[in-house]
Amino acid sequence: MSAFFSSSETSMMAINRYRLKHLVKTRNKSARRVSKLLQRTDRLLGLILIGNNFTHTLATAIATVIAIRIWDDNAVLAVTVFMTIVMIIFAEVMPKTIAALRPESIAFPASYILKPLSKLFSPLVTLVSLVSNNVTKLIGIDLEEPANEDLKPEELRTLLETSGVPEHQQKMLIGILEMDYLSVNDVMVPRNKITGIDLDDPLEVILKDLQETEFTYIPFFKDSIDNVIGFLTVNRKADFFSGGTIDLESLLNELEEPVFIPENTPLNKQLATFQSVDTRVGLIVDEYGDIEGLITLRDILEVIIGEIASGSIEKMDIMPQTDGSYMIEGNVMLREINSRINWNLPTDGPKTLSGLILETVQSIPEKNVGISIEGYRFETVLIKDNVVKIAKVEKIEVDTEDEELDEG
Question: What are phi and psi of 148, to 5 degrees?
Fold first, then answer.
């Protein structure tokens, strides 16, 4: 009996509440019974502890009486020691260990007995709960305050990582959660990587560049990228070349007006904007109106579903080396590096590799330098036009003994 109450207590407290809610929704009778018992945890624990203590006391008393009748009063101490060992092993440790490992297997059958017992001993359970609750209130704990069982995003992420959900689906769900912490600056195409066409060029050059460009959205500008006139989509590009007249005026008629997005706009907000308007591309501008980058609906979707394959040439901006390091272009976004090679470079500051190195050095190096940042070694290979063009990066081993000393 003591083993029953001990295992019931542990299984009821260890049962997965979210799985229990799911089973209740599917009208599982055992789950509904357990859920009803857990609605009043104080009464459930009161019932279990009453039963457990009663069986402990009864077993010890019976063993003592038997020992006195068979032997004498001197056997009481030996019987007490023996019963303590037996109760600890067979009535506490073993049943609670099994219940912790298999909570549903214990809690569901136990609920068939606990429910009628709770009604049978209702007056005693009520008395114990009343005294216990009043004492609890005296120490400042409000038992009527509902327990907050809602998961925070970071807790839900940890749950997903250990849930057994297929890796691809897991990444998609985590990608949705990450959108709450990302802005358009985290996934944009940086200004220096935007490929556009200058309308001040001769028409022959414009048409040649247009035919050779394979991007879905092609920006057209005058003089500089800060003066974007509009975008030409792939579909309109086909319409333009299939039309009868191919001149600058016809080309301008096919352009979509540019949409400007303030920097640091939350990614989930921009996704909602793209869904509500008839455009799928925008230019990110700072407080002075200067263009910082370009973002498309595809860039946002890739946060959720991963990189979308295309027919373009394989990316060569992150090149693995034989020694385990990588040669990486400085304009590559840190978040893209983390995603592609499963690293954990800091992303709460600068967005690009060049920005991270220059912020750490706090100057424009006159020659190549080597630095370490949060477990990664950076060696600049090419510095040009005040930015890091190429850097060699490797993940360095952290001395576990030093980590333990730091934690101590």
Answer: -85, 105
Nearest partner of 372 among 339, 396, 389, judged by Cα:
396
Answer for the pair 73, 81: CB distance below 8 angstroms, yes or no: no
pLDDT tens-place string over residues 102-128: 999 999 999 999 999 999 989 988 898
Q: What is 318-407's CATH number, 3.40.50.1820, 3.30.465.10, 3.40.50.280, 3.90.1150.10?
A: 3.30.465.10
> pTM here?
0.61
Helix or strand or coil: residue 214? coil
Helices (H), 71-102: 75-86, 94-101
Q: Are 96 and 88 in contact (CB under 8 A)?
A: no
pLDDT at position 218: 92
- Cβ burial of 95 (10 Å; 0-12, 13-18, 19+) is buried
Length of the chain: 408
Q: How far is 130 from 291, CA to CA, in rounded Å?
A: 67
Residue range 184-305, CATH number: 3.10.580.10
